[in-house]
Structures are given as C-alpha cells and as structure tokens.
Amino acid sequence: METNKLKRFATEARNILMQGVAHRFTALGFQPDGTPVEEPQLLGGGATFMGDTVTEDFYHKWQSLAAAIRRHGLKDVVEEAAYTWFNRLMAIRIMTKNGLIPPVLQYESPGVYVPLIVSEARQGRLPQMSEEERSKLMPLLDDDGRTAEQFSLLIVAFCHATPILHCCFGHIADYTELLLPANILAEGGFVDLINHTDFIAEEDYRSSELIGWLYQFYIAEKKDEVFAAKGKFTASEIPAATQIFTPNWIVKYMVQNTVGRIYLDNNPYETEVAQDWKYLVNPSEPTPDDRILRYGDLTDLRLADLACGSGHILGEMFDMLYTIYINEGYSRREAIEHIFRRNLTGIDIDTRAKQLAQFALLLKACQRDASFADCHCMPRVLDMPKTGLPLPADTRLANEIEAVNKTLADADTLGSIMKFSLSPAAREWVVSLGEENEAAQLVLALTDKYVVLVMNPPYMGGGNMNAVLSNYVKKNYEAGKADLFSVFMQVAEERLAKNGKYGMINLPSWLFLSTFEKIRTSLINNYHIDSLLHMGRGIFGIDWGSVAFVVTKSQETTNGIYFRLHKRNFQHIYYYHIEQLFLKVLADHSFKYNFDSYRDEEGRVSTFTLSHDESGLQLYYVANQQNFEKIPGCPIGYWVSEKIFSRFAGNLALSDVVKPLTGLQTSDNARFLRYWHEVDLEKIGFGCSSTEEALETKKKWFPYNKGGSYRKWYGNQSLLINWENDGEEIKSIKGPVLRNPNYYFKKSISWSLTSSVGCGFRYNPNAALFDVNGMSLFPNEEKDFMFLLGALNTTPYQMFSFIINPTLALQCGDVARFPAPTSTPEKQILIERLAGQNYTISRTDWDAHETSWDFQENELVRLSKEVQHSCCASTDNTSTCNDVNNADGARQECRASLADLVEAYKEHWTEQFLQLHANEEELNRQFIEIYGLEDELTPDVPPEEITILQQGEIYIENGQIVWQNDVIVKQLISYAVGCMLGRYRLDKPGLHIAHPEPTAEEIAAYTFNGKQWSIDEDDILPLMPSDTDFADNATVMFKRWLVVAFGEDTLVNNLNCVEAALGKSLDDYFVKDFWKDHKKMYQNRPIYWLFSSKKGAFQCLAYMHRMNAYTAERIRTKYLLPHIEWLVQKQSEMEANAANLNARERKQLDSIGRQIAECREYHDRLHTVADEQIAFDLDDGVVVNYAKFGDVLAKLK
Fold first, then answer.
1. pLDDT, tens digit (0-9, with 9 covering 90-100), for 119-130
2. DSSP code of 386?
3. Which of 468, 475, 926, 1055 has the most CB within a 10 Å radius?
C-alpha cells in the first residue's frame, strides 16, 4: 500500500471538501463568522428563505445547523460535515470495489461528469426512496443543468436505502444533507478525484487497512493545527491529537502473540492453523500450566480494543477468530455472528472512528458472507453516549447510577479510562436496560474482564491534558499519569482476566524514564513481559521511537524475548524494513545487523540487504525481568553487553589524557555503607587527601562516591564507607574487590554507571573513595579538570556515548574511547570559565538542601538575614539593630515577610537556573563548532535536563519553570524542626547536634534577633493536633520559631503564607504529612523517628542522634500517659453532659473512646519496649536500629 500516495489523496480530498462545505454556508445565509444573515420562516406547511419557497424539512435542518454553529463554532461544523461526506462517499467507493453495491459514483462516460446514479435515475431506475424524496426529485430530472441537485437527492436516498451506510454512518436526514458541496461533481471535485485517482490501487480497496490509513491522513492537518496551537487539548481536539495508525505487521504481531498464543496453549497440537502466523514469537520455554488461560468454548474468548480508532486491530482479531472458528468446524455465518455478538468489543472516544471501525468489520464479514450486508448482525463497537443512564426507582441503586452518570458526563474527555464501581444489583439493573441503551453498553464494556486486549493507545503527555482529564488521571491512575499511553497500560492490567494477555504499541519512554518508574515496577512485579520489540523512529513516521510488546497477567519467573530493532533512538528506519529485520531475527536468533550501513550521508536509504554482519548489533535477547530492578529506576534494560567501537579518526582517545577507573565493590553495602546523616558526625572524616591522612584521623566513616541519579556538574555526595584503620574490616573478609586504591581520596570527575536518562559528569573535589557504580576519571594534568568537565557534559559527548554504548550502562572502557576534547587556547579559557560557573551553581544548589553534609542554613532564613543585614547596614547601630524608624518616626522592622522571601528565593534561583541553562547551551555551541557537527546537533538544552532544584521545587511545563511553593515551605518547616530538636541553630551555620549525648551547653537556650530560643530538652516533639495538652507540640513550636526567625509583627502573614503554600492547615500537615515528607527527603533513612499508635491517635518524633536507652520510657511517661489522662478527662466531661450533646458532639465522644482504646493498646506495647531500655550504635544505621523498636515506630515502607 503506497502510504505516501494515500496521504496526498486524503489531504487533497479534505481541502476540496472543506472548501466546498464552506461555500455552502454562504448559500445558506451565514457570514464567515457563523452569524446568520437571514433565517427561514415557516409559512403554511412550508417555509420561505431568501425570497424562495422551501420545505418545512429544510427549515428544521437549517435550524439544527444554526444550533450546531452556536454550540461548536463554524470551523468545527465545517470540519464535521466535510469529514462526514468523505466517509460516506469513500465507503460507497470501497463497497463498489468489493462488489457489494452498484458503481453509483462512477461517471457515465469519460469527460461527462454525470454519475451513474444520476443517469440511471434519468432513465427511470431510481434507488429506494420515500414519496417525499421522490416528489422533490421528479421535477428536477428533466433539467440536465441541475445535475448537482439531482445527485444530492439521489445520494441521500441511496445512503438511506443501503443498510451498511445507514447503520454505520447514521441517519443522513440531518443538517449535513444541506452541506453537500455544490461543486461535488465539478471537474476537480471530490467525486472526480475518486473516479480518476491513481492514489489507491485496486487491491487496496479490499484491505481494511485502507480505512485506517485514510482516517489518519485525513485528520493529519487537523492534528498539526492542534499541536501548533499548543496548550491543553479540548475534548473535541483529543481524537485528532492522539490518533496514530498502526502498520499492519505490528498489529499481526500483537494479535498473534495474544489471541494466537492463548489458542495454541489450549490446543498445542493445532499447529496447522498457526502456519500463517509468521509474527508469532516462540517463548524461551513452554508456558507453565498454571499460567495458561483456560477457556471452555471459543465464545468465551472476550477480546477488545479500548482505543480502537478505525478498527484496524479489531479487523485483525476478527481474521484470526474467523480462521479458528472455521478450523473448528463452524459455518461462515456462525463464525461471524459469534465474533460480532460474543467475542469482539471495540471502544473509541471519537464517533467518526467508531463508524469506520464498524464499517471495516462489516466489510470483512461481507467479503466472507454477503448476507451480512443487510446489517442483521452488527459488530459491537461503542463510542461515548450523549446521555447518561436513567435512574432506577430504588434509592440505593439510584445513588450508584448517579455516580456512574457523574463520570459519564465527562465521557467525551475521558473515553475508555473511565472507572465504574457497580454492585451486583446495580450491574444487573444496567444489563436490564438492553442493547439499545448506549450508555449501558459502554458501562458494561468498561467493567467487563477480557481474555485479550490489544491496543495502540492515545499518546498525550500530562502537560497537554485539560483539567478534567488531568485530575481524573491523577486520582485514578497515579502510576501512569505522565502520559495517556501509560494510563492505558494500567487500564489493560486492570481489565484483563487472570492469565489474560494484552498487546500494545506505544512510546519507549516508559522503558527508561524516571517518570514511568512506578508503572515499570508494577509491571515487573505483577505481570510478565512475554516479548517486546524495541524500535526507533519509522513505525509511525514520527520523531520518537516505538515499542510493541505482549504482557501476561501472571507472575512468572520465565524469561521474556526482546528484539532490539534499532541502534539509536533518533535514527529513522522505514517500518517495512523494521518488519524485515524482525522476521529475519525471528528465524535466526544469532543474526546481527550493522545499522551504520543503513543510510548514506544525505539520509537516503542507499542499500538494504539483510546480510549478517558480525560487527553489527545483536538484535535478539532473552532476559529475566526480575533483573531490571537491580538497576536504579527499574529501566527495562534487556541488553547487558559491552560493545567495542573504534576510536574516532583524527582525535586522541580520552584515555590518552585521563585515567578512567572502576572503583571498589564492597560485596555487602548494608554492612559497609551509610548515608552521612545516619552516623555520628564526629566519626566522619572529611577532607582527607590520601589514605595515610585518613588513617591518621582515626575516623571511621569517609565520603564514598557511588554514582546515583542523573545530575551534572556537582552532587550525589551523600554516602559514606567504613574505612576505619585503612579499611581494616572490609579488607578482612572475602568478597570485596578493592580496585585502584592508589586513587582513593583523589579529586576526580565521576559519573554513574547506569542511568536511564543520559550521562551526567560531576566534579568531585571532596576527598572520597569511589564505587564500581560511581566510576571516576583522573586527568593527567590537574589544570584540565574544568575543561574536561565542560566537554563531557555537552551534546556532542552525549552523542559519542550513545554511539559507543547505547545501553544503560556506561563503562570505563566506553569513556576511555571517547575522543579527547580539543580547543584553541581562547576557547579553552571560555570553556573553563563556563564549566567553573556551572560547578559553582550546582554545588550551591546541592549544599542549599539539608541532605548535604555542607548544608549551612535554610535559604529563606539566609535571605531573611541578608535583608536584615542590608537594612541595619543603613543605620549607625548595626551591632544591635532589630528595627529602625521610618521617616515619620514609626517603628519599622528590618525583616521581610515570608511571602516576600519566597519570591526572593524564586527570583534568585530562577536566575541561577537560567544562567546554568545558558552556560550549557553555550558549551554545546562551542563543542559542536569544534567538531563540525552543526548539521547533526543543536546547542539546545531542554529545561528538563538542567539538574538543579531536583527536590521538587520546580517542574517544567511547556518549557517554562513552574515553582511549587509547598516544597519551598516544607523545606523551611523541616529546618525549623531541626532547630527545635537541636540539629541546627539559627545563630550559627551548619550542623549543631548530630551526635549522641550532647552537653548541657550544647542544648542551652540562645538568643536570636533579640529573642530567646530553647532547644527541646528531652528530644521529643509531639505531632498532635494543637488543641491537645502539649506545650511543645510541633504546631505550637513552629509558630514560636517563626516569631524568633522572622519577627512577631509578621507572624500572622507568615502563617497564612505557610498554610496557603501547603494547601492545608499546619496541624493537618504536621499530623498527616510531615513525617512522610521527611522519610522521602532522607531516602527512607529518617533521622526523626515517629513513635505512633496504629492509626495515629498518638504520635511524636524523637531525634535519632539524641536518643538513648530511656527515650521510649520518657515518651511513655511524659507524653503518652498524660495524653491518655487528658482524653479520659474529656470523655468524662462529655459523658456527664450526654443528654445535651448534639449529633456532632456524640460523634466526637465516640471518637475519643476509640482514641483512648488505641492509645491504651499502644501503651502496652510501648511499655514493653521501654522496659528493654534499648540503646543503639549509630554506626549500625537507620534500618538496623529502627527495627530494634519493632511496631512502636511507624513503618519505614
């Protein structure tokens, strides 16, 4: 099928029809903006319009048209009418070519633009017509100059009288009849185009694939318009924005490996029927018996496409089912009726797509049995209903149905992702509404379980979702919310029967990007990837790659089969060549292909021969998906091989100027590694420059570089290794591998071994040991650090990385093969300056967070001090200034409000972000020019790839920074809690208490801003509502802290600022969310431990570094028992007044009773733990020490 020709045909047809329909609006009395110039008027059984007599039917259709314009706008109505006539006339053409109807559109003779339907009518042979239609036509037939009017009446009547056209494309007796272009029969008009086109080959008319391609290409311009407008997609734009047609061979792959595999698993000896299933992937080992989906009868095979578009996938499932039915002895008629009534379901958000899907399936049925042309049995393809369900009389059921209708109200936006919760009684009632109720059929279809689902889902990133869609997705599909295609992955998982299979083609971003980590984790742990085809550009003719795969709803340990059918994501390969590659490697698993030979320098396909090349890329992989979790972020890393590539001509290898080295392997990270915040600060050795110096410090813990997440320039400095006595313990056991010890504690440039989003290189000036996952390179000349750092973080070097090793793992040997950067002296000075500035910005950002060991103070506090210092510097009393007098002599505090500080914070860090972004693009520009890569690369850096502000402060939407004030405020709250418990001091930068047994001097009160602040003396902070009887409750303490930190005059405004950012009250945040955020910030190694009853009726924090053997007992006696006593007192007071309590107060009394019971139960458990007087060694780490307290602490995970 010549898709390029089809695209030209569909585009030209759309333009002709759109222009013709638009002209009809002028004839119908509408201005270009849709305003009517004149309206028809009813007059005694008829009507008048623009001086002519018209029928009453015309009047009603005109009014319907005017109402549609008011609702949707003229442009959308033109689009709808043009597409409606395109579908109807193309359907007539296709049915003609399949011998189902006479050639009514064919011209009577060459050069005479009179269709046969008109010439036949002039000879008295009319299609079936109503008397009203006949009475309109007869006076026109004697006038050959009114051919277009004759054709209009005849084609409308023909559509009415032809069941397939009538049933698939709806009642034509609506306003679209008025909009049939007057020039439809003119030379160059649409009928002329389809009669004389060489765009469509004769054999293509018998392929249902033709319908899908025409649908995609017809709406291609509309799709371009939607994306050009940018922003959120409206409900009417979603179909065009998300429609992509799937090449036939991909559809066959998905259907054969779902429907076909289930059939063969149940019928292992029916091999003859599978002989034509050439895309069937044989598993690496037989399907375990308990993982086979068993069915009783073929009619039990419920199959669906929940985003069916024009029905291409449904058609392929029809073909396979038909073959199986015939193979098992069913008649043609029985097979088709079972498929339509029992097996197959299609759903689409777009009514036009639904119509095409029904037509395509009926065409397939008629090609096998012409009796289905009467539409006595229709395929089950559903679109979105225009109305909801009627409400039953039963009130309880009515409540359920009202909830269903509430969701259905947004059906045009949500489509098949809608969820409905129906009780058995409610479902039975919905079933009773019958097949004629469109809403009922949709609800049932979306609550059924399917044996097989095969889909090419819509693709739409979260940034393009409108508010209705975005909110629904976030609420119901949290793991897949980043894109609609990943939402449909969750939909498929939820709507499959146990051991069922789903096949899907979508974007490969879910394989690797952190955005999709949750969807990957769920897939890996709960389902089985049977096979996967990883493809680059070319399948859809678009700029991103694609991946097709088959998943079984079962937890298996068997291997999956993976095909890598591309080398680089940005390399375009024609979809038919990808198909040939797949078939070749399916037949020969050892086949390798050299993708570098695919295209010449101009990008043309010079040759494509399927010859094995030993130097080429391996295409066939067998992998166990459980291994994917071993890589951070769980990327679907099905390939694990290192590839050797020759150096680039004309450059030294990077290994000539640096030493890229692999670090040590501890063999037991849980034993030897800690996050720096877990241990006693006084046992950490920072700043050592050699192993000898480290030994002299007599410290135990030293910085350890273990790679980490994607970050450039500086960062990922959070781990320590036990290197006490020169690594005495780690050297004393078998297992650890100590590589390159002479380079321990040396400055380096490091990168993470594995990354799913690219490789970020970081300067590590801190003396550290390094890990096998935190590989490091050491320049021969120390002066080269910044130059090398600048080069390695540019797009040319990212490209080199993918060329040398396109896998997720960038090994030392790969980096050694990078070309060494070169430059002129002048450029080198610029590059070093830019890289140095980037390093400084990134380090400042890293150290601005309390998870950095170089953290000094919260940014808002720092900015507040700067404001105060600036204000006081303008007076003569800088040493004691807390406030000044304004020009009127009134008191004026030298402090900014928190809201102002937040804005100052955002302004400062936006400036830093933009500077870093500009620097990175300039570095790209320099090295693109150095290597002469202007035709291959651009200097552009997506804002998403700027690696500062990575703790949630910002996200990027449509290329712009979007600040999240709640994260900024939460960081302030976390710092404030640290001040309450003594980890930080307002009057001194850096850590204060991060060790056991602080002295009285260390916990003594101090003065800041003229006010006294007291560190909590017992290291315990209640996280309880502020109305409880605790003077040191977190909310109360935070308010006091705000006064000390920012002044009393701004307290109310500052509290309002905090709660506005949080979106909730302080009480709610501390009680419900603070500890969850703290756990996340400290990577499930919290330093503030939560003692909590089962449902949180009692909870308080204890600072790990200050805890001792008596902490649990202090919590029991000073906090829990008084709280129980307080609750009992409240209960007694309310019970004494029980007769006067209102309903709310009675509920409160019941709640108090439950809290008392919960706290007493918790007391019993806490008492047992307290009696044990548990002491612990910080060196053991949070996981070990936390577990010692059992269930009196909240769960870590």
1. 988 888 888 888
2. S
3. 926
